[in-house]
Amino acid sequence: MIVTTKVQDMQTMMQQYRLEGKTIGFVPTMGYLHEGHVALIKKAREENDIVALSVFVNPLQFGPNEDFARYPRDIERDERIAKENGVDVFFCPSVEEMYPRPLSVQVVVKERVDVLCGKSRPGHFDGVATVLTKLFHIVMPTRAYFGMKDAQQVAVVDGLIRDFHFPIELVAVPTVREEDGLAKSSRNIYLSPEERKEAPALYQALQRAKQAIENGERHPETVCALVKDYIQANTSAEIDYVEIYAYPELKPLEKLRGKVIIAVAVRFANARLIDNIVMDVK
Ligand code: PAF
Fold first, then answer.
1. Which residues belong to CATH 3.40.50.620 in the chain?
2. CA distances for 221 relative to 58, 241, 253, angstroms
3. Which residues bind beta-alanine (predicted)?
4. Which of 1, 5, 78, 101 has the highest CB neighbour number within 10 Å of its CB?
């Protein structure tokens, strides 16, 4: 596995692979790799000649009161996991390398951001879209891999790729879960043992919503209320939101029909958790 911290080296190397006609699968991450990331690496490994993985905790996508400084980091462990899972190129630039001077141009996301996490994290997806625009130009991938756990991010990246004509195929990979249903996340380590026991209630609530829809329920408010009640009854977490939209447009629906996302975000004492399911409603 080649490891580099330099934008120029990375770009030159990737350009060479493209000239050789190799397909490149790109897995952008903020590190502290877990099985969710490994699922992305494995999928990229199956589908491409070269797998590139980036580890970069992007300050631009953290708000002033968010956990940028506290975000877990362990680059040696990340390198080991990447290598074990067949990554060819490991790109881990510093903040200075990625942002050597204040940006004179920034990407602003206009659609699909005024709901779900975007609503409570103003500027977050502008930061994501900006760093991905940079990374896409550095890595020049054939395909880019993202986890469906952050379904809003997938929707935003879909818009970015289409609007800016990136010749990249977006691959959305299903959420990887613990045995008890809790979605894998770097932030799960912040849960107390008690909270960790409660956390699977998020997925259970989503499963109940799915069941209700399968049984004929079509009113978004009724489904949201069901999810909220279940989470409130089974956890000590504070609910940030429970919302249902058309997916990937993230537009509200009067009656459930077509592809929909049911998404939740809750706050435990030291961790904010998100989860969602996407389903086709006939
Ligand atoms: O999902 C993430 O880890 C980040 O938002 C991403 C896509 C690597 C951009 O910084």
1. 2-173
2. 36, 12, 10
3. 61
4. 78
CATH of 2-173 among 3.90.190.10, 3.40.50.1980, 3.40.50.620, 3.40.50.300: 3.40.50.620
Q: Residues at the annotated binding site?
A: 30-37, 61, 147-150, 153, 176, 184-187
**Is residue 128 within 6 Å of ligand 1 at its C-beta?**
yes
Residue 66 clears pLDDT 90, i.e. is over it: no
Q: What are the catalytic residues?
A: 37
What tens digit of pLDDT does each residue of 245-261 get? 999 999 999 999 999 99
263 lines ligand 1 (CB under 6 A): no
Percent of the residues in the chain that have a pLDDT greater than 90, as a whole number: 94
Q: Which residue among 32, 56, 126, 153 is best mutated to probe the pocket of ligand 1, counting the most ligand atoms within 8 A of its Cβ? A: 153
The whole-number pLDDT of residue 153 equals 97
The sign one gets for the Cα dihedral 149, 152, 157, 158 is positive
